Amino acid sequence: MSTGPEHDTTDGTVVPPRRDAEGGLLAALRETVIVVVIALALSLVVKTFLVQAFYIPSGSMENTLQVGDRVVVSKLTPGPFDLHRGDVVVFTDPGDWLPVTTPPQDGPIRGAVRSALTFVGLLPNDSGNHLIKRLIGLPGDHVVCCDADGRLSVNGVALTEPYVFEGNVPSERTFDIVVPAGRIWVMGDHRQASEDSRYHDDGKGGTGSVPIADVTGKAFVLVWPFGRATWLTRPASTFVKVPAAAAASTSSSTPSPSPSR
Known about the structure:
The protein is α+β, with helices and mostly antiparallel strands. The chain has a domain at 52-97 and 123-245: Umud Fragment, subunit A, CATH 2.10.109. 19% of the residues lie in helices and 22% in strands. It contains three helices and 14 strands. It has helices at residues 18-49, 108-119, 245-249, and strands spanning 7-8, 14-15, 51-55, 70-74, 88-92, 130-137, 142-145, 153-154, 157-158, 175-178, 183-187, 210-211, 215-224, 230-231. Strands 3, 4, 5, 6, 11, 12, 13 and 14 form an eight-stranded antiparallel sheet that branches. The chain has a four-stranded antiparallel sheet with strand order 9-8-7-10, with no helix packed on it. Strand 8 and strand 9 form a beta hairpin. The longest helix is centred in the N-terminal third of the chain and has 32 residues, at 18-49. The radius of gyration is 27 Å and the shape is elongated. Residues 120-124 and 250-261 have low confidence and may be disordered.
């Protein structure tokens, strides 16, 4: 249906009104804006409730993760899904674990664009207030270093840790702690290059452990660089024989329970 009168050229060709072309352009522009807004809104919802990308700034998790890697973190753990020993977890600094740094300064336009894209989840979070480590002990776990063979033990079971950086010992620091309720004990895979729960503890497990409330989520996939992309799964056998904390506390007087998985 025409929105204005058509008119003829000298050769008899009918020319549609210019208003139709302008109206089509405005409609296309409006649809594009709506699609972009919806996409950004969905990205924000995904980042807030489901997954978020993070950049790896240090070598504390080598060789599992290397400097410059990008990982995707599931925010459904903890939450609908439970944390497990062996998970690679991202958490906010629980209290002066990280040095105070000055972030690089972008120009006003580039900085605004970067902040906006990071906010909605289209760029990985490079902020300096998150850490990534491996979960070694759950609430109530008795974590000790080290046994006669130099291995960590959890609830009396010595661990074989294939993910530890080649040439590193499980820990150069000795400790014997019980993880407090509502907290977890974490360590980097590059044990001699990771200032983790061991370095911040008071010897009782309280100051070195991380509140579960500070856990952002579980890293489940390495997405960059593409040549090293892989799922970040829990080690198959490291913790399979470790009993639950409550079971471990009564194991001296009762038969051993089934292994906790």
